Amino acid sequence: MPGVTRETLADAHRVVVKVGSSSLTGDDGRLDVDALRALSDVLAARRAAGRQVVLVSSGAIAAGLGPLGMTGRPRDLATAQAAASVGQGLLMARYTEAFARRGQRVGQVLLTVEDVMRRAQYRNALRTLDRLLDLDIMPIVNENDTTATHEIRFGDNDRLAAIVSHLTRADALVLLSDVDALYTAPPGVAGARRIDRVTGPQDLAEVRIGGAGSRVGTGGMATKLDAAAIATGSGIPVMLTSAANVAEALDGAPVGTWFAATGSRKNARRLWLAHAARPNGRVVLDDGAVRAITVGKKSLLAAGITGVEGEFDVGDVVELVSTDGLVVARGLVAYSSAELPPLLGKSSAALRDEIGHDREVVHRDHLAVVRHRR
Ligand SMILES: Nc1ncnc2c1ncn2[C@@H]1O[C@H](COP(=O)(O)OP(=O)(O)O)[C@@H](O)[C@H]1O
Ligand SMILES: N[C@@H](CCC(=O)OP(=O)(O)O)C(=O)O
């Protein structure tokens, strides 16, 4: 069965390789061109051997720091976006030059959440990616940082890479960071052991996760584990290792942490709702509504809601929670948190009388069942 062990990476036809800012920057937080060239050499060699690579590269913000006279990742979004605006072009210039040394051409692909979640847009993005690969051009993907907003953005490229690997039907996802593997505890904690292989959530029960290890990284190990869950849950195995190990990892050598595929291909929109979207609030469901959406695969109606928490707008992602605090699903809500309270518990007939329609609160097409404790 393909993808069961890390050795299968050597023969994988299409891989998505994600490299984090931490692997592309020096101690001063700025772009490390030697590191970028070393990675480009390995990926160009893989392509020259007849295999396809889609590179998801962070580093736009890091590349913008030097020209802007900054040393650490800006805290506010607008400045980070300005740094990304300055840095993305420089990053691509570096890659273009580095890959050209090996005769490999590259193309920039900047994506937003909407590009990969709306069917028409994602088909368009996919067509471009496929065409680039057909033309023997290595796509270099990043989030379109300059226009993404807080509410609707991936924010970290780990989950973006997982979704890109799903969209492009990659055979494997390789996550490269500054740490050579997943450990039982963050670096620096005494006694931390490398985890060789993860076959399901039970293998992660004892793992302690810390934040980003560098001044420029985002998310740390948590977003890598989210990414691994997204990819493996849709049938794509994941290798997590350091950029220094990329050649060995792509050859299937015993490095890093291997996450075996656990599920089968999913609907992209549900995948995003379940894993990547950031919820803005919660609605609390009575037991009948929980059963209706999980077992009955129904839409969520106002009649089954007992409470509203947080502030959200029409179209935001909300968590659907049972009365005992279990997050049973996530979905795109059709009412704002201000509109909803007077409607709770009301039947469809009562709603039609009162507000002239009985629109579902979360339509089943916009709902992903998850089930985990909050
Ligand atoms: N259990 C763990 N095992 C390995 N690394 C961990 C763990 N918990 C936290 N980390 C940290 O996660 C960091 C990688 O995340 P990040 O800095 O966001 O990297 P990148 O820029 O590559 O995305 C590592 O450098 C490490 O310090
Ligand atoms: N899109 C941002 C990267 C955000 C990000 O995920 O960074 P990292 O955690 O280093 O992979 C950039 O290019 O700077």
TrEMBL record:
Which is a Pfam family this sequence falls into? PUA
Matching CDD domains, A to Z? Answer: AAK_G5K_ProB, PUA_G5K
The record, for PROSITE patterns, names: GLUTAMATE_5_KINASE, PUA
Role description: Catalyzes the transfer of a phosphate group to glutamate to form L-glutamate 5-phosphate.
Cite the HAMAP family for this sequence: ProB (MF_00456)
* PANTHER family xref list: GLUTAMATE 5-KINASE, ISOPENTENYL PHOSPHATE KINASE
Q: Which family does it belong to?
A: Belongs to the glutamate 5-kinase family.
Specify the protein name.
Glutamate 5-kinase
State the organism of origin. Actinotalea lenta
**Designated gene of the protein:** proB
